[in-house]
Design a protein that fits this description.
This protein is α+β, with helices and mostly antiparallel strands. Helices cover about 35% and strands about 25% of the residues. Strands 7-11-8-9 form a 4-stranded mixed sheet, with no helix packed on it. The protein has a 3-stranded mixed sheet with strand order 2-5-3. The longest helix has 28 residues.
């Protein structure tokens, strides 16, 4: 049998047709599998979860085929402990089923922060700026004997607190500030110098 006869043989054409058919079937199966795996065409609207308790937010997401994952906590005094402060993706976005929704939840305890080095190391303005930037609340200052507007101590809940001590950011801090009585009066300083000069002259 010649090569031409072999190529025109029904067996050869049958094999080629079978291979083409298998290729098409595999392509369709693969396409369907990928569509199912990637949830092609699905669009689930992410609800707004801000203000909901974590358990309620988690239940609501599960009903939609989504998963809640708590990734962070923060503190907001105006919101209930354990409620959702924010989430990613945010409400109104469309996602596919099975997607993780990352939650930031309000902490149940007031945050504690380490007190910076302020006592006898900063002016009133510097201390106020630093504490405010850190999130501390400030009460009216308490004036003590010392150089004017110089910080000599810090109080929290009526007791003195010190550098590195962790204190609540919800309790206002009282800065103990010099009233100016510790400064040397320049006129008195001049009188003292003049008196010493007179005594030196007498002794000579």
């Amino acid at each position: 049998m010649s090569i031409k006869d072999k190529l025109l043989s029904p067996i050869v054409w049958g094999n080629l047709l079978a291979m083409a058919l298998v290729t098409v079937i595999l392509a369709l199966v693969l396409w369907q599998g990928m569509a199912s795996y990637t949830h092609h065409g699905e669009n689930i609207l992410v609800p707004s979860l801000t203000g909901l308790q974590e358990t309620d937010a988690r239940y609501r997401l599960e009903q939609l085929g989504l998963h809640a994952v708590v990734v962070d906590s923060s503190y907001n005094k105006g919101m209930a402990p354990g409620c959702v402060l924010s989430h990613t993706p945010e409400g109104g976005r469309h996602v596919k089923s099975g997607r993780n929704i990352y939650l930031t939840v309000n902490t149940e305890r007031t945050p504690m922060m380490a007190l910076p080095d302020l006592a006898d190391n900063s002016s009133l303005r510097e201390a106020q700026a630093q504490l405010t930037a850190m999130g501390f609340r400030l009460a009216p200052v308490e004036y003590v004997h010392g150089d004017k507007d110089w910080v000599y101590g810090v109080k929290s809940a009526g007791r003195n607190v010190y550098t590195g001590e962790r204190v609540s950011i919800d309790i206002p801090l009282v800065l103990q500030v010099g009233e100016g009585s510790g400064e040397i009066d320049e006129s008195q300083e001049d009188i003292t110098i003049d008196t010493y000069d007179i005594l030196d002259d007498v002794l000579e």
